[in-house]
Amino acid sequence: MKQLRAKASLGISFNKYALASFIMPILILGSVYFSIGIYPGSKLSILASDAFGQYSNFFASFNTMMKSDKSIVYSWSGSLGLNYLSFISYYLGGIFTPLVYFFDNQNMPDFIYFLTLLKIGCIGVSFCFFSSRTFCIPKWGDMMLSISYALMGFTIANSEVIMWLDGILYLPLIALGINRLMDYHRPALLFFGYFFLFMSNYYIGFMVGIYSFMYFVVRLLTDKKRYAKKFFSYLLTAILAGGASMVLLLPAMIDLKMNGEALTDIGKLKTAATGPWDLVIKNMIGVYDSTRYGSIPFIYVGLLPIIFCVFFFSTKKIPRLSKICYGSLLLVLVLSFYIEGLNLFWHGFHAPNMFLFRFSFLFSFTILLLAGFGWSNYKKEDFERIVNIFIGLLIFFLIVRIVTAKNDGYDYLSYTSFILTVLFLATYLSLFFWHHKMKSKKILLIGVFISIFLVELSINTAYLVKGIDDDWGYTNRSLYNEDYSTIQSLVKQAEKESNNFYRLENVTAMSNNESFRYGYSGIGMFSSIRNRHSSYYMNTIGFRSAGTNLQIYYQNNTLITDALMGIKYNIANKPISKAGFEKIGEEGKNYLYENQNALPMGVLTDERVYQKDVSSNPEQLLSVLSGLDGKFYRTISPKIVKIENAELTTETKYGKEILVLNAKEKGKPIKIEWKIEIDEASQVYLDILPASYENLSQTRVEINADKQQSNTSMVKTGQYYSLGNYQNKQEITAKVAFEYVDILELFEPKVLSLNTEKFAEAAKKAQENGVEFRVSGRKASAEVVTEDEQVLFTTIAADKGWKAKIDGKEVAIRTINDGVLSIMVPSGKHQIEFVYLPQGFKLGMMLSICCVVIFAGYQYLLFRNSQERKFK
């Protein structure tokens, strides 16, 4: 198809329209943000959903790493520690991330605001570059398609997940790279496109990689005689580009294999929550349902691309073979929305956790691709065909609106969206009619055409941004940085207080990932990249990390687990009542507490720690580490003295008695008051365990006791709720309110009373056997003196990237319950060192260097051959 071949040069006009392709998406999205009160320094931040809980904290950690001696391959911040290189490959890869260097961690909301706009603008330029060399349309047409691509429904609706935008940016360059390789045998653009794609985000990179191969096959099938010889060149370039990125990809893939989740089973043929009219409705203006569970794909790219895409299939100017090949590509994507197996395939056979149909931007790109081809073939004589397409779409949209009007599954399709869609279609039809009748130069018409198109995209962008705000809520800046300076000051105070490694946790943190923001070693974390073995282990000893260990919470723990994991400091915005925790600092409304009973990173002990019933039981583990046998807890049965807004019944489930609380008045909290007889010198915990966490995602538990008040999520806190530290034997009252739940099933609540004197004695004994470690980047070192051969128990997260050395000689590492590391230490005085290097890093580095060298040689051969042909 000669008319569809790539254009040879860009010229000055490309620069002008490329600049517009960069600026206009930024101006439109920036204006929409401004309209709802988001701008640099505004009270309302751009942080919504994952942008608040994850990306703001993770970018802050990268910033800290760049400006300090922290390692790029290992982080001690989240959980007990994790492979930071793998973490970067998923969350922080890409050429734009280092720009965070020019911001302070306190200003991460502004950084993410600027980064979002910058990426959106670059996406526009990327597609303009592709369009100008692929389609035979006016330069202003390239600009319109580019702006449409930059502001398509997927990019706006999923803008909270900012790292996905990199894949969208590289897709047009990769497609153009394929074109250049197939048409001119120039593989450089494809090589660098793939390289930067895989280095930016392997998750989206997988999707783009599969799609681009399909795109190559489609082009090949349209002209097999011409393109068959290019298959080897494409395959070689793709493999070398993938190999060049192995320095990051290989460690990430190994880490994913070790710590990734199990593949999702294909349970049924049809994808859940999808309906027959999804793709039609999501092509209307301003349609937002949700990015949570039960949502449907975001595929909007504007009405004109849809028109020209339909024209691509209806015109006789385009060969039937091209229609079949490109139509098959589009059909595969459509079927992938509806067939669960195909849907899971695009997600690497792992069902996404909200933000569904993450590959739907590929559908939008395909629509724009076919629209560009259709537009390239449109002439004045095709006016009647275009009119028929407009009228057909108007009728079709009307029918769909009527059919879905009484369907609860499509209640997010408002009459406003439908009316706007019809109005813009009618306006475009009028403009086409004006174009058909006019014979003079149509500069005014082009201006009107572009203006209306930009208004359409602006309206859609505004509706989607409003949808995000309603769905997730853009958070106030104060939630991110109101206490930043005071908390940072307390973190620095803790650093000055300790010369050796320790862990710190903010009891009242706004996010589970705050340790990344402030740069301290904590427990809590919410990340798709995590050390599942250590998180699972910590779940067994009291820190809640259920299911696939996507999250681990600090809140669900006791003084014993605080001690075992070396939690030496707590920060809180209110007084806490924890035995052994002494207040040593205060900044603003935040307090710093030091735990006198915290153990160092290492403790010398015996082989009993390898027994599973010991290592997974905090009480027994402390006994072994301290050498003091006995029980630290006593179980007490609390007495219910009052119940409000609930009927209490009992039943037997799982072989145990279950308390069932049915709210009398829906929407109001269920309240229970317990009386508890406690011992002297005791830390008291109320043991509340639901029979099931299903339907409790919004449930909160508010507890008011004599010395402790709390209000936490039931799902996050888990089982143990601290009632405070008491010195005297007495009767206390615990008032508990369960909010946002109408039916609650609980195992019979108990009270755990920890003998704080006996616990403190055991902690002191364990400290005497302790080994203090110094941590520097990816290394942890210590000096050990022992009279006999002993086991060195550590709280270093188990990972095969660790190597241990005693006096410079490597020794075997043994894991404890697959969660933490230990080694055998012979008698005498020794220097211990643990060194981390991600598995596959060295091999990945060698592969990267080799693949770059091979591609450079291949490129040189192609250049030399082309020069020889030129001078023959």
Write the SSE topology:
Layout: H1 11-35, H2 50-66, E1 74-75, E2 82-83, H3 84-91, H4 108-132, H5 139-150, H6 153-157, H7 164-184, H8 188-200, H9 202-222, H10 224-227, H11 231-244, H12 246-259, H13 278-281, H14 303-314, H15 320-338, H16 340-346, H17 360-376, H18 383-404, H19 415-437, H20 443-471, H21 477-481, H22 484-497, E3 503-506, H23 514-518, E4 525-526, H24 532-541, E5 551-552, H25 559-564, E6 567-572, E7 581-587, E8 590-595, E9 602-605, H26 612-615, H27 618-626, E10 633-636, E11 639-644, E12 646-653, E13 656-663, E14 670-678, E15 682-687, E16 700-704, E17 709-713, H28 714-717, E18 720-726, E19 730-739, E20 743-747, E21 750-755, H29 756-768, E22 770-771, E23 774-776, E24 779-786, E25 790-797, E26 802-806, E27 809-811, E28 814-816, E29 820-825, E30 828-836, H30 841-870
Parallel strand pairs: 3-6
Antiparallel strand pairs: 1-2, 4-5, 6-8, 7-8, 9-22, 9-25, 10-21, 11-14, 12-13, 13-20, 14-19, 15-18, 15-21, 16-17, 16-19, 23-24, 24-30, 25-29, 26-27, 26-30, 28-29
Helix pairs in contact: 1-4, 1-5, 1-20, 3-12, 4-5, 4-7, 5-17, 5-20, 7-8, 7-9, 8-9, 8-11, 9-15, 11-30, 12-30, 14-17, 14-18, 15-16, 15-17, 18-19, 19-20, 27-29
Q: Please, could you describe this protein's structure?
A:
The chain contains 30 helices and 30 strands. It is globular. The longest helix is centred in the C-terminal third of the chain and has 30 residues, at 841-870. Helix 1 runs antiparallel to helix 4 (108-132), helix 15 (320-338) packs across helix 16 and helix 15 (320-338) packs antiparallel against helix 17 (360-376). A hairpin with a 2-residue loop joins strand 26 (802-806) and strand 27. Residues 1-12 have low confidence and may be disordered. Among the domains are: 477-601, no CATH class; 639-748, Jelly Rolls. The strands form eight sheets. A five-stranded antiparallel sheet has the order 22-9-25-29-28. It starts with 10 loop residues before the first helix and ends with a helix. Keywords: Membrane, Transmembrane, Transmembrane helix. The chain crosses the membrane at residues 17-39, 72-91, 111-130, 151-171, 191-219, 231-254, 293-313, 325-349, 355-374, 386-403, 415-434, 443-465, 843-863.
